[in-house]
């Protein structure tokens, strides 16, 4: 990894925050994407325009994958690719909440090697680089090392608790909490603020790429719902859910999930 990749992402994320916070979420123009793909605002598009100009210009050999850019198979020919979500948590942004984030990552042959999750309205800058650990506002972070699931706080949306997703229909007991931005959920696990996160819904790469590295560099474990390591820059950039936590909680959740469940579909 070029030594400056992480700094490149940090600088771009800080600029993204300046752009996004010029808009008032509740008054920003908003549209609904086709086929129920969710909302987009003028702030998402403005941030995406800046990132798409700035990042590939700095690394012309890298591919590009963004929620707000029409996908191209050209990225599949590149060893390294930017994977970005200009604003993760667009609904929260549009509602005037502070729990939305910029999520930026670089993947090298399918593995994320540099990552930033930035929440400008909360002044939270999470960063990670392969082999260099993870930080929050410059301070090293670690995942929770709690071992008992029944005393754990797990970030998960309510549909994940449907009995059909668990072996013998037995839903495990833990304290379920929720935050709207998937990137922010993963960052909170990396920080150790919560003990794990779980989503059984097919997950877009741009929502989880940065969080995957952040958690792994914070000494946690991140996999799809079947326990497989996450691989990025796929032809169809969607992964089979996410389990993320310290080793004990990750392994417990994975063991309790029914591998034959088809997951949650949009």
UniProtKB/TrEMBL annotation:
Protein name as catalogued: Inositol-1-monophosphatase
UniProt-recorded Gene Ontology molecular function terms: inositol monophosphate 1-phosphatase activity; metal ion binding
Binding locations of Mg(2+): 67, 85, 87-88, 207
Swiss-Prot/TrEMBL GO biological process terms: inositol metabolic process; signal transduction
Signal sequence region: none
Cofactor: Mg(2+)
One Pfam family from the record: Inositol_P
Transmembrane segments: none
Organism the protein comes from: Ruegeria denitrificans
Gene behind the chain: suhB_3
Family: Belongs to the inositol monophosphatase superfamily.
EC numbers for this chain: 3.1.3.25
UniProtKB keywords: Hydrolase, Magnesium, Metal-binding
């Amino acid at each position: 990894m070029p030594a400056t990749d992480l700094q490149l992402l940090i600088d771009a994320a800080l600029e993204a925050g300046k752009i996004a916070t010029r808009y008032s979420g509740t008054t920003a123009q908003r549209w609904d994407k086709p086929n129920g793909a969710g909302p987009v605002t003028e702030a998402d598009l403005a941030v995406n325009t800046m990132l798409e100009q700035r990042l590939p210009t700095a690394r012309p050999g890298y591919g590009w994958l963004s929620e707000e850019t029409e996908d191209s198979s050209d990225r599949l020919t590149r060893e390294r690719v930017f994977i970005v979500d200009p604003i993760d948590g667009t609904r929260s942004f549009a509602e005037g909440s502070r729990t939305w984030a910029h999520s930026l990552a670089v993947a090298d042959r399918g593995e994320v090697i540099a990552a930033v999750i930035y929440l400008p309205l909360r002044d939270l800058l999470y960063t990670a680089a392969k082999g260099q650990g993870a930080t929050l506002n410059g301070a090293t972070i670690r995942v929770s090392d709690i071992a008992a699931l029944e005393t754990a706080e797990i970030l998960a949306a309510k549909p994940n608790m449907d009995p059909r997703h668990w072996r013998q229909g037995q839903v495990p007991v833990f304290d379920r909490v929720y935050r709207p931005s998937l990137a922010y959920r993963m960052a909170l696990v990396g920080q150790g603020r919560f003990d794990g996160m779980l989503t059984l819904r097919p997950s877009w790469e741009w929502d989880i790429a940065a969080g995957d590295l952040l958690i792994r560099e914070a000494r946690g474990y991140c996999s799809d719902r079947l326990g497989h390591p996450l691989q990025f820059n796929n032809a169809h950039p969607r992964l089979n859910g996410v389990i993320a936590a310290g080793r004990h909680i990750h392994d417990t959740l994975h063991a309790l999930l029914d591998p034959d469940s088809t997951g949650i579909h949009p």
